[in-house]
Write a structure and sequence with these properties.
Immunoglobulin-like, Jelly Rolls, eight-stranded mixed sheet, 3 domains, 37 strands, 10 helices, single chain, flat, 652 residues, alpha+beta
Length: 652
C-alpha cells in the first residue's frame, strides 16, 4: 500500500478529560447516562463517546462491507439533531447501487433512578432521493432528551471498490474515541491520504494471508490497517476559510492499481503525462479546446483588426462576457460543447471559457487553459493525478511577457481578474506541447476600501462631503451591487446608518468594467450633546460591525483570498464657537513578523482635526498560529471604530 500523509497544519491540543465516559467500547454504562456535561468544550451540544468502523471485502460476493458502531451523548437541546441519522448511498445511473443492512438503534435515558431503553422501530427507517448520484437512508431515534445516550449500528455494502470507504475522525461535535479498521486485498492498491493535520494515536498494519479466495482457488492476502484517534475537538466553521473538507480530520482512499487474478494490471492512477493525453484526446473539454473553425466568424472586424495585442485581448474577453451567459453549472471535462453555447447563448463554465480560449488562440494571442478547483470544491491533490478534483477552467494569456488570468463567466470581472471562488492556491496549466504543470493562483495587488471626507462642525451639526473608493475584490462587489440596481445599493447604504441624512449620491468616473469604484455623497449628522459638551465619533462608516474571529483557537488557516487594505482620511473643521477638549489617542500595532498592521493617528491644528486610519493585511492566507494575533487586532479595530471620540465644548 502507498501512504501519502501530507503535513497539514499540526496543532497541539489539550487532552480531553473523559469524565468517566466509557470511551473504550460500544457498551453503554451508567456513567455515560448520568453525566450531563463535557467541561472541555462547554459549547458542545453533543459528544461522540465511542465510534468504530470496520471495512473488508466479503468472500461470498466480493463486495466491500463496512460495519459501523456509534455511541453519542446528547448534552443539550441543540444536540437533538444528532438523534436523526442520515446515511448516504451511492446510486450510479447504471449498475448496482449500494445498500444498508442491519440497522439497530437504541436510546438510553435515566428515569426515576432507572435506566430506560427505547429501541428504534424498523418502520421508522425510510429512504429518499438526495441528488442524481445519491440517495439517503434516514431514521429518527425515539424518546431523545437532554442527557440521552444514543447507540446505533448498521452495515453498508458496496460493489464499488474504486470508492473504498473513507473515515471521518472529526465532526461538528467533539469525539472521545474514533477507530477505523480496513482490510484491503492485495489486488487493489490505493493511495491513502490522511487529511486534517491531526495525529493518530494508533496507526498500525499487518498482513492477513489468504483473506480473499475465489471459487477457482485463486487467493489474495490483505493489508490490515488500524487507525485510532482520541480526544478530537469539534470542527467549527468560521469566516475566512475554504470548504471544511480541506481541514476535517479523515482518511481517504484513491484507487491506484487493480491486479486481476488472471494477471492483468490496470493502472487507475496514471502519470500526469498520460493524464494530459487523456484530457486532450478523450475528454469533451480537450476536443472543445480545438474548435477554431467554429469561432472564426464570431468577432467583428474592429476587434480582429485591433493592432494592440492587449487591447484586442481585452475586447475579446468583453465580447464573451457581453454575449454569453454562465448557467452556473460547473461542468468542465464532460458535457462541454462550444457549438451549444454559441447556439443557446448560455452554457457551463467549460463552454464559456473554452470559447474564450478558442477566440484568443485564433487571433494569435498566447493562451493556455488552467484547470482548477473552486474554494467550495476543496484543494487539489498534487501528489498524483485525480481528475475528479477539478471542477473549473480559466485561461492564462501572456502579452509582452506578462501573464493575465481570465474568466468570462462574470460580466463584471475586469481584465486579469478572477472570481473569488477561483482563489484556491493553484491550478494545472495545460500545455499542448509539454507536460502540464502547477500554476499558482495568487493575487499580488491589494484590494482596497477607503473613506475620505472633509466635514464641518457648526451649529451642533456635522456636515460635508464623503468620498468612497474601492478597488480589487471590494470594487467588484460594489460594481455588481450598484449596477444591478443603483437604487437598492444606495438604499442599503442609507439604511445601515439611520442616524445620518444622505444627500446627492453619485458615482464618479465608474463604469461597469472599471477597475475601481468611486462614490460621492454629502451627509448631515447630529452628534451626542450633554449640556455644553459634544461627543463626536469621527469614524462614521464602519469597515467591521463585529469581530469575525470568535473561537478560542483555530486549527485551520485564515484565508482572506487576497491582501487587504482599509483606510480613513478624515478632516473636520470645527467652528470657532467650540473648544476642542480632546481628540482620540494615537495607536500603532502590528502582527507578528510584520504580516499586518493597524495605524491610527489624530492631530489638531488650531480648530482643525485630522485623523488617519489604516488597517493592512499583508498576506492573503495566514497560518493558524496567527489566529490569536488577528483576533486581537480585529478587537482593536472594533474598539477604534466605536470609541474614537472627539470631545468639544460650547463657548459661553
Amino acid at each position: 500500500m502507498k501512504y501519502i500523509l501530507p503535513l497539514l497544519y499540526l496543532i497541539v491540543l489539550p487532552m480531553f478529560a473523559q469524565q468517566d465516559y466509557n470511551a473504550n467500547s460500544f457498551q453503554v454504562t451508567k456513567a455515560d447516562i448520568e453525566n450531563r456535561e463535557f467541561p472541555n468544550d462547554s459549547m458542545a451540544r453533543a459528544l461522540v463517546i465511542y465510534e468504530k468502523g470496520n471495512s473488508y471485502v466479503s468472500n461470498s460476493n466480493f463486495r466491500l462491507r463496512t460495519e459501523i458502531q456509534r455511541k453519542v451523548k446528547i448534552l443539550n437541546r441543540n444536540g437533538f439533531d444528532k438523534g436523526t441519522v442520515s446515511i448516504f448511498i451511492y446510486k450510479p445511473q447504471k449498475g448496482n447501487r449500494e445498500k444498508i443492512e442491519n440497522i439497530n438503534a437504541t436510546v438510553y435515558n435515566m428515569e426515576n433512578g432507572k435506566v430506560v431503553k427505547t429501541t428504534l422501530d424498523k418502520s421508522a427507517v425510510f429512504e429518499e432521493n438526495y441528488n442524481k448520484n445519491y440517495n439517503v437512508i434516514k431514521f429518527a431515534l425515539p424518546n431523545v432528551k437532554v442527557g440521552s445516550v444514543i447507540t446505533y449500528s448498521y452495515t453498508a455494502e458496496s460493489p464499488y471498490m474504486f470508492k473504498y470507504k473513507g473515515w471521518y475522525f472529526q465532526d461538528d461535535i467533539p469525539k472521545l474515541y474514533s477507530e477505523y479498521n480496513a482490510s484491503i486485498p492485495g489486488n487493489w492498491e490505493y493511495n491513502i491520504k490522511l487529511v486534517g493535520g491531526k495525529q493518530l494515536n494508533t496507526n498500525v498494519s499487518s498482513i492477513d494471508k489468504n483473506c480473499l479466495q475465489t471459487s477457482s482457488g485463486a487467493n489474495s492476502s490483505c493489508g490490515v490497517y488500524k487507525y485510532i484517534m482520541k480526544d478530537i475537538p469539534a470542527f467549527i466553521n468560521e469566516d475566512f476559510m475554504t470548504t471544511r473538507l480541506n481541514y476535517l480530520a479523515r482518511i481517504e482512499y484513491e484507487l491506484a492499481v487493480f491486479r486481476g487474478f488472471d494477471g492483468t494490471v490496470d493502472n487507475i492512477t496514471e502519470t500526469w503525462k498520460t493524464t494530459d493525453n487523456e484530457i486532450k484526446r478523450d475528454s469533451d473539454l480537450g476536443k472543445q479546446l480545438r474548435r477554431f473553425n467554429l469561432v472564426k466568424n464570431l468577432l467583428d472586424n474592429d476587434i480582429i483588426s485591433e493592432p494592440n495585442t492587449l487591447t484586442k485581448a481585452e475586447n475579446i474577453l468583453r465580447y464573451v462576457q457581453d454575449n454569453y451567459t454562465w448557467n452556473t453549472q460547473y461542468d468542465v471535462l464532460n458535457n462541454v460543447s462550444v457549438k451549444s453555447l454559441i447556439d443557446k447563448k448560455s452554457g457551463n463554465v467549460g463552454e464559456i471559457n473554452a470559447l474564450l480560449f478558442n477566440l484568443l488562440t485564433t487571433n494569435n494571442i498566447d493562451a493556455k487553459p488552467i484547470l482548477l478547483s473552486t474554494r467550495a470544491n476543496g484543494f487539489i491533490t498534487q501528489l498524483f493525478p485525480v481528475i475528479s478534483d477539478f471542477n473549473y477552467i480559466i485561461v492564462k494569456v501572456t502579452i509582452d511577457d506578462k501573464d493575465y488570468l481570465l474568466d468570462a463567466t462574470d460580466k463584471y470581472l475586469t481584465f486579469g481578474q478572477l472570481p473569488f471562488r477561483c482563489l484556491n492556491s493553484y491550478g494545472r496549466l495545460l500545455n499542448p506541447k509539454k507536460e502540464s504543470s502547477w500554476y499558482p493562483i495568487t493575487i499580488k495587488d491589494y484590494s482596497v476600501k477607503r473613506y475620505s471626507y472633509n466635514l464641518n462642525f457648526k451649529d451642533d451639526i456635522l456636515t460635508g462631503e464623503v468620498n468612497y473608493f474601492s478597488k480589487g475584490y471590494h470594487a467588484l462587489n460594489d460594481r455588481k451591487r450598484y449596477f444591478t440596481n443603483p437604487e437598492t445599493y444606495t438604499n442599503d447604504f442609507e439604511n445601515s446608518y439611520e442616524d445620518i441624512m444622505f444627500l446627492d449620491f453619485k458615482t464618479v468616473n465608474t463604469q461597469k468594467m472599471s477597475k475601481d469604484f468611486r462614490l460621492k455623497f454629502n451627509i448631515n449628522k447630529y452628534p451626542d450633546i450633554v449640556g455644553n459638551t459634544i461627543y463626536m465619533n469621527p469614524i462614521i462608516f464602519n469597515f467591521f460591525d463585529k469581530n469575525p474571529f470568535q473561537l478560542q483557537q483555530r486549527s485551520y488557516p485564515i484565508d482572506f483570498g487576497y491582501k487587504d487594505n482599509y483606510s480613513y482620511n478624515i478632516k473636520i473643521n470645527v467652528d470657532e464657537n467650540y473648544i476642542i477638549k480632546s481628540i482620540p489617542k494615537k495607536l500603532s500595532i502590528s502582527l507578528p513578523n510584520n504580516k499586518g498592521s493597524l495605524v491610527f493617528s489624530s492631530d489638531q491644528n488650531d480648530n482643525s482635526i485630522t485623523l488617519y486610519f489604516k488597517l493592512t493585511f499583508k498576506e492573503a492566507i495566514y497560518e493558524p498560529e496567527y489566529y490569536d494575533s488577528l483576533k486581537k487586532l480585529l478587537t482593536q479595530v472594533i474598539e477604534t471604530q466605536n470609541n474614537s471620540l472627539i470631545v468639544l465644548e460650547k463657548k459661553q
